Amino acid sequence: MKPRFFTTIIAVFLYTLVYSQTDVVKYIDELKKEKTWNSASVGFCVLDAASGSLIEEYNKNISLTPASTLKIITTACALQILGKNFRYETLLQYSGNFDKASGTINGDLYIKGSGDPSLNSEYFRKAEDTFFVANRWAAVLKEKGIKKITGQIVIDVSCFEEDIPANWVWGDMGNYFGAGPNGLSYSDNKMYVVYEPSAKAGDSLRIKKTVPYIESSTIKNEVKAGGHEDNASAYRAPASSEIKITGTLPVSNKPSSIEVSMPHPEILLAMHLKQAMKKEGIDMADKPILKITAENKKQYSQNLTVLYNYKSPILEKIVAQTNLHSNNLYAESIFRTLAVKKAGWGSNWLAIQTVVNHLKSQGFDENGLFINDGSGLSRSNAVTAEHLSKLLHLMYSDTVVKNAFINSLPVAGVSGSLKKIGKGSPLENNFKAKSGYITRVRSYAGYMKTKSGKEICISLIVTNFNGSPSETRKKMEQIFLKVYELL
Question: How far is CA 113 from CA 77, 116, 182, 336, 375, in A?
């Protein structure tokens, strides 16, 4: 009786598993017949979180644009290569000599960047405290007895190349989410353009102020009042201080604002430090700010003395903010930091090679893997659903950084971009994932605890759909619910 009993149990188990798999795939096939998805490409892959064995798939090996789900590759590689306790270090240094008796530095004051994206970031300070880092540094200089600096401020951004990824599009660069990485990022490399209240639709909106104020920037403003949501867009070429803003903002009796990428954040940091030192009574000559880049670095090679080493929050906390808020600047900065670690310089190309080589060392098949940036903003990125799910399994199996990675992901119905996903459904608190969205692309990759208690790695990418993004999101949510119920 025992052999027959166990044979029956195994048969029932296999039937249930096959039925569950077929049911989910059938549902995707039905969605593909609908007008909104019949032209779409769908990639879907479910792995057992513990073993990595395949449970379910639909076009798992088709390369598709991942949008911001690419950030899980960047942040996972960073945690493994740099370590969860890695900290960026920004150095205050001086050239020449320091006369302690008079409190005079006979030389220049250097700010040497390491690519820290969290420097004076709103995620690690009070939003209104624009000068937090500058004030802190000026206070440190005063504590060290410095009363006068005879030279100029020198900003060293040579750790990163001064360029954005080549495949970013013109329509993204001027907006806050298109702010590029910098050897000395500052205040999230973005600024707020604040508009006066508007009386009626069609009115031309007047700029009230920018926060922070940037003296050298020029704004061509073509924004009008109208519509029911923010439809204003900013355009700015890399390295340019000229910004063009077009579109509409809703009629309002209160000031309204938009976020745009900031020109030359490293210059603003130096200017804020100058102002902060003046408030602390430190005298400094009114000389131009000198900038050291990778191209001119050899010209300014000299012995420097460290005054202060400013350390960032640990990488685990930076990664948490990166994935929770889908922060492109953070992701791109981390991406280039990997290149600095492995190759000594933070170029986008070296970062690509570093990430791909690391994945290959972990057993990844690079076939179908096309990485062009660290954030997913580039439409030239392409990955398979299997790549994403295997990455999730890799991190689930890494006992050193597993929790740091998983805890960085938004929670369904609770936080970040998943706050509206599965709210009030079984997915709430049982699904942690990174989402991705750019025009005609929606994607999710993360971990799910199913109805039976099974922990799975799940990824779903849908590209070139018709209809609204919210409609596609709801259909993807239904796929997740079916997986939850059937596995």
Answer: 22, 7, 9, 13, 21
Half-sphere exposure of 131 (CA within 13 A, CB side): 15
Tokens encoding 378: 């580039």
DSSP state letter for 119:
T
CB 237 within 8 A of CB 168: no
Residue showing tokens 């902060």:
276
In tens, the pLDDT along 41-79 reads 999 999 999 999 999 999 999 999 999 999 999 999 999
Q: Residues with Cβ < 8 Å from 299, sequence gap 6 or more?
A: none
Structure confidence by residue, pLDDT tens digits, 251-291 = 999 999 999 999 999 999 999 999 999 999 999 988 999 99
What distance in Å separates the CA atoms of residue 133 and residue 28, rounded to the nearest whole number? 51
Taking the C-alpha atoms of residue 450 and residue 235, their distance in angstroms, rounded to an integer, is: 44
* CATH numeric code, 16-84+315-486: 3.40.710.10
- Whether residue 3 is predicted with pLDDT greater than 70 in this model: the reply is no
pLDDT, one tens digit per residue, over 140-149 is 999 999 999 9
Can you tell me the distance from the alpha carbon of 392 to that of 383, in angstroms, rounded to the nearest whole number? Answer: 14
Query: What separation in angstroms does the CA of 24 have from each of 142, 336, 454?
Result: 65, 39, 16
Identify the residue whose tokens are 């799940």: 458
Token pair 């999101």 is found at 473
CA distance 276 to 387: 48
- 48-64 burial string, b = 16+ CB within 10 Å, else e? bbeeeeebbbbbbebbb
The residue type at 425: S
Helix or strand holding residue 156 (H, E): strand 153-156
Residue 78: both structure tokens together: 């960073």
Residue 319 CA neighbour count, 13 Å, CB half = 30
Q: How many Cβ atoms are within 10 Å of 160's Cβ, its own excluded?
A: 28
Cα atoms found within 13 Å of the Cα of residue 474, Cβ hemisphere only: 5
Question: pTM for this structure?
Answer: 0.93
Spell out the domain ranges in the chain. Answer: 16-84+315-486, 89-311
79-90 per-residue burial string, b: 16 or more CB within 10 A, e: under 16 = bbbbbbebbbeb
Burial class (CB in 10 A: 0-12, 13-18, 19+), 23: middle
Orientation of helix 132-143 relative to helix 265-279, angle to 10°: 50
Please give the angle made by the CA atoms of 294, 299 and 305, to the nearest 5 degrees: 90
Half-sphere exposure of 55 (CA within 13 A, CB side): 26
